[in-house]
Amino acid sequence: MHFKNFMVLFSGFLNKKIGERYTNVTNQAESCFTLDANNRKRHRYNEFLCTQTQQCSFDFDKKNSNEYFQQEDNNISNKIPRLDSNVKRLDSTNNTSKNVDSNMIYYGDNIQNLEEPDVDASFEILADSENENSLLFKTPVDIIIFEYSNSYVIRSMYFDNCNSSEINEIYLNIKDITKGNIDIHMFKECLNILCYGWNYGVSGLNNENFLDFIQLLSDLSCYSESDALITLYKNLLPFLFSYAANISRSNVFNLPEIEFIKYREYFLPFLTVLYASVDIFFTSNTKELVFIEKNEIRKLYLDGMISSEKIIIRTTPIALKFMYKDYSKDKKIILSKLVFSYEILGIRISSDDRYYTACKNSDIANLFLKRNAGICDVKTFFFSVFYTHDFKKNERIKYIEFERIDLTYDSRILGFGFYYLETLILVKCKFNKYPKVLSNVSFYFPNLKILRIIGFGLTNRFFNNLNYLKIETLDISGSNYVGSNLKFCINLPKLLKEFRMDHSYPNYNILNSMILNDNLAVLSMRGVDFTCLKNFTSFRNGQKYFHCLDLSGCILDDSMLNFFSINIRSKILILEGFANMNHLQKILNQESLYASVRCLILSKDSLTLNIFDFLCKFKILEYLKISNLSINLLAPFVPDCRCKGYISEIDLSENKLSIFFLYFLCQFHQLKMLSLSMCNLETAFMEILCSTNLSTSLKNLNIAGKRMSELDIQQIALLKNLNILFVSFDDSVFSGSLRKYGALKSPNLEFLILVFTNVNCDIANFVIMLSSLKSLNFVKCKLNDDVLIINFNLYPPSLKSITFTKTFIPENDRFFLDVLRNFGIQVIIN
User: Which of 36, 152, 486, 659 is the most buried (most CB within 10 A)?
Assistant: First the structure.
């Protein structure tokens, strides 16, 4: 990045002609700048942030700066005034000058720490008033002139945007940069810090100007490749503590919450440096403010937190322990003021920052619990760290999730009185000193709508008290019944719509009650062995219509098989992993299902080809998933499906397919989504897809993990309406396709997910040419060195987010992610 000359004005010009000229400059800058304190928006690299105007320029004789200076010829009129770094004042009387100090300061390529001016910080320049190109300051003017270049250890996105234009000289008024009350001295101190980092502190910084100084840092949108910015905020912490403890009326910490929110963003960077052993960052996609112990080198970002009004606190017992041990009154004031200036929607605490609910697949979640059965024995200090008067004002917390933690010594977190709590999730927790929590859920949380109790031993009292709740969702997956049948009298909530008991060992009375519930819409019983249940009866009045029915991996006894084989209706039917093919075919052989099922999932089954005899009978099927089957779908057959006018999504992932099987897909002229990921299709398969009606109907294509030829890659361009693409590119094959067929274009593509891809410059160039791209994801990829820096300076203008999941990012490129963030692009690293 080529350096630019900046002139920052701290007061106006009163000479009529010159004043109009520079007032126009600053007015134009103010009108076309969108990076001021109130409206900082992302700019494209090819936009001009201010308009170049004519200006009169001078050069000082550095050997004798006290002599008269004369106006330069017009051939050097495009130069910026270069003044000594020593402060000079030029006073005029009859074309003479005197040796006095000035507040016009010039920073060359090698900025030095400047000495304080010895006299009044103002200057006047005398020139021939008859010459229209001369400068005449009739009142004192404060100006700083400096060069902004790559040598700055702390960068400013505000200045970067100015640098991106073709203008060599940028004229600004200080009010273009910040609305804070910044004088020339504090701005000079700020420039020194940006150039050198925190070396000698900030001269003159005190409680009166502290807010204006950190507001300037915020308005400049500072970032750094190194830890210079973090070091800066760490060294500013004592100033923050002093400011927060000040009881003066000008202290915004003493303002009501609704007023403090206006200033909150200036203080947020201090959160990331508040605790030495705890990382604090914000995940904008989940609105979670995360407190986690330091155990790896990670970049700490609070992107999205400025614009958020509601957050969820996510932490671990170890992080809470470190925060508790690092307690100080000053830190608690800062933490409380910043965190509780938001509406706290929920609290999530897990032993290792991993959560059962993060697993969308219940089978994987159950396996995760078995492998991570231990409960963290570290005491949970949540209330010790967070409980303040401000916490009471946030009692409208609606979501609590605790997983594999010991609540014995902080059990009041469950008995605190979260009257408005709507969702409670407890996964294998321990709270010996509070044993009645589960038995009295209705007492502590009367407004619950979602209750998930995972991996517990459940007693009669727990079930008998459910009737007092208004819950709509009950999940007891992985739990066991440990009560007595003699005292069991369950009466489930009348509003219950969803019941899940995956991989559990329930009582038969529980199951009987569920099937009799007329309002039940979702029933999931994955992995339940019903042969272990006794006294189950087949109910004539049992619920036969479901929105979603999941019997995956079940071992059915005769009574259960008979019940689910007669007149069952369901919009979503999930039958994965059936070991008994006769049971599966008996369930599928129902006219009621053919007329009601819109989504059918058959995966991990030992299917034979005659399963298609059943599939072709479904009349209104819209989504079909038959993935990861144990048979080879290689036969060249094209069965005629009754639902071919309805199906819009088909998932054939992880199957052994032949090209002939693709002709089976051609009958679905409404097909919009197709997944062929991890299939063993031969190359040239894209030619078949693109030669049919699918070339216009497909909007979502998943061919990740599929080997593609040079022609296959080029054929992607023939999918005219493609909106979402999951794909794996071989970098050498992609580059070969580019040389042989030309650039790959997909003008309507909005979501690109690259999987198992070595990203070279050719692939990166393809990405940045996607004019409609909104979301870019790298999954298990490797980025070549400098591929981001070189190629992503001209990223798609519509791009809103980039996500890296288990992806290698070279160190040289990591700092560029900060640049993208400062342009308003959400960057997520998983």
Answer: 152
- Residues 311-333: pLDDT tens digits? 999 999 999 999 999 989 999 99
- β-strand 450-454 against 143-148: which pairing, if any? unpaired
Do residues 301 and 819 lie in contact, with contact meaning Cβ atoms separated by under 8 Å? no
Q: Which residues pair with 783 in a beta bridge?
A: 759
Segments in 3-155 forming alpha helices (H): 16-32
Q: Which residues contact 623 (CB under 8 A, 6 or more apart)?
A: 598, 599, 600, 647, 648, 649, 650, 651
Angle at 110 between CA 106 and CA 116, to 5 degrees: 50
Q: Is the pLDDT of residue 600 over 50?
A: yes
Cα separation, 36 vs 174, whole angstroms: 10
Q: How far is CA 235 from CA 191, 193, 199, 330, 470, in A?
A: 16, 12, 10, 15, 52
- Tokens, residue 621: 């099927």
Distance CA 356, CA 402 (A): 10
The answer for 478, left when phi > 0, alpha when psi is -120 to 50, beta otherwise, is left
Token readout for 417 is 């009185």
Structure tokens at 630: 């144990």
Our count of domains for the chain comes to: 2
Would you give the DSSP letter of residue 662?
G
Cα–Cα distance between 732 and 766 in angstroms, integer? 14
Q: Which of 178, 202, 236 is the last residue of a domain?
A: 178
Contact at 8 Å (CB) between 413 and 387? Answer: no
674: which residues sit within 8 A by CB, 6+ positions away?
A: 649, 650, 651, 652, 665, 689, 694, 698, 700, 701, 702
* Residue 505 belongs to some domain of the structure: no
Backbone φ and ψ of 513, nearest 5°: -65, -35
Nearest to 215 by CA among 247, 256, 174: 174
Q: How many CB atoms lie within 10 A of CB 696?
A: 13
The DSSP call for residue 796 is -
For residue 627 the two structure tokens come to: 């993935």
Q: Which of 178, 201, 230 is the last residue of a domain?
A: 178
Closest Cα partner for 673 from 595, 725, 638?
A: 725
Inter-residue long-range contacts of 508-516, CB under 8 Å, 24+ positions, other chains counted: 508/533, 508/534, 508/535, 508/536, 509/485, 510/463, 510/481, 511/536, 512/536, 512/537, 512/539, 515/539, 515/542, 515/543, 515/563, 516/541, 516/542, 516/543
Cα separation, 814 vs 224, whole angstroms = 11
Output the 3-class SS for 91-106.
CCCCCCCCCEEEEEEE
pLDDT value at 22 more than 50: no
Domain encompassing residue 37: 4-178
Residue 457 has pLDDT above 60, yes or no: yes
Q: Looking at residue 758, which CATH number applies to its domain? A: 3.80.10.10
CA angle, residues 53, 54, 58, in degrees to nearest 5? 125
Say if CB 158 and CB 43 are below 8 A apart: no
Give tens-digit pLDDT for 708-761: 999 999 999 999 999 999 999 999 999 999 999 999 999 999 999 999 999 999
Supply the mean pLDDT for the chain: 78
Q: Are 802 and 825 in contact (CB under 8 A)?
A: yes
pTM, 2 dp: 0.80
d(C-alpha 640, C-alpha 615), whole Å:
10
Strand-pairing partners, residue 7, are 145, 171
Helix (H, G, I), strand (E, B) or coil at 750: coil
Distance of alpha carbon 463 from alpha carbon 600, whole angstroms: 33
